[in-house]
Amino acid sequence: MLKDKLSEEELKILRRSFEIIGDIAIIEIPDELMSKKELIADAILKKHKQIKTILRKVGEVDGIFRVARYEKIYGEKTETMAKEHGCRFLVDPTKVYFSSKLSTERERIARLVKEGERVLVMFAGVGPYAIVISKLSKAKEIVGVELNRIAVEYFRKNVQLNKVENVVVIEGDVAEVVPKLEGKFDRILMPAPYSAENFVYLVRGKVNNGGFVHYYTFESENYEEEIPKKVEEIFLKNGILAKVIFMRRCGSFAPYVNRYAVDVQYLGEIK
After folding, report:
1. How many domains are contained in the chain?
2. Are 51 and 45 in contact (CB under 8 A)?
3. Which CATH number does the domain housing residue 22 bear?
4. Domain span at residue 239?
5. CA-CA distance, 106 to 89, in Å (whole number)?
6. Among 14, 27, 101, 209, fewest CB within 10 Å belongs to which?
């Protein structure tokens, strides 16, 4: 749609992919193309009639709340309704972390959950993992822990919106909350690739032997083969015997750097 409106050089640096969350498009525009932002926005609006707001990403996900920085290119509202797997999520990407690109991964995890399981979701955000698991499985209980107060507000609204009764929302720091949780879990999710390594110690003694931890990390493609051993060593360093049973790429972070989902089977603690 832009091939006759941009030069060959401009087309080479144009970011061709973008994310859609509800009726919001999140795009990346190199500084060299900012003078053409209206043309780029018009092309998106013609192709995707449902879009009401276009945000330009100006800063990567950062800080303890894992929120990226954006500027408005088109439209005003930043709150939207995202839909996936029969679930609805009220969300404002300028205030909380949410990625529609992880929809397939959320479904994959939910399909692994067995009837009667007790599941813990660390860094739960607005509740996408917890709620999708509730909808697509027969889990007994899903506990979601989130530090960002605004995300917790959305999480609670989304629990009501989706009418899920087996999801427990806890506001707080996982480092303070998890040690106080009673009992053990059959499955723990750690969907924070930026910092999950720093919180592995919290898993010790919180998973039933034979249960699972879903660990997420960023790594260069050049070191992909080393990830299973590296993750097992991280768990071992934290006094946990564990074995990686599955690994997959689930999105990219930068050129040749990907997000990896690593399924770890919990085999017990080292005395």
Report:
1. 2
2. yes
3. 3.30.300.110
4. 101-269
5. 13
6. 209
Q: 10 Å Cβ neighbour count for 250?
A: 19
Amino acid found at 176:
E
Q: Are residues 43 and 126 in the same domain?
A: no
Cβ neighbours, 10 Å, residue 13: 12
> Would 263 be classed as within a structural domain?
yes
pLDDT tens-place string over residues 31-62 = 999 999 999 999 999 999 999 999 999 987 76
Tell me the two tokens of residue 97.
């972390």
Q: Is residue 79 helix, strand or coil?
A: coil
My answer on whether 246 and 128 are in the same domain is yes
Are residue 145 and residue 42 in the same domain, yes or no?
no
- For the segment 108-129, what is each residue's pLDDT rounded down to a tens digit? 999 999 999 999 999 999 999 9
Q: Where are the beta strands (DSSP E) in the chain?
A: 19-21, 24-27, 53-62, 67-74, 80-84, 87-91, 118-121, 141-146, 167-171, 185-190, 207-220, 240-254, 257-269
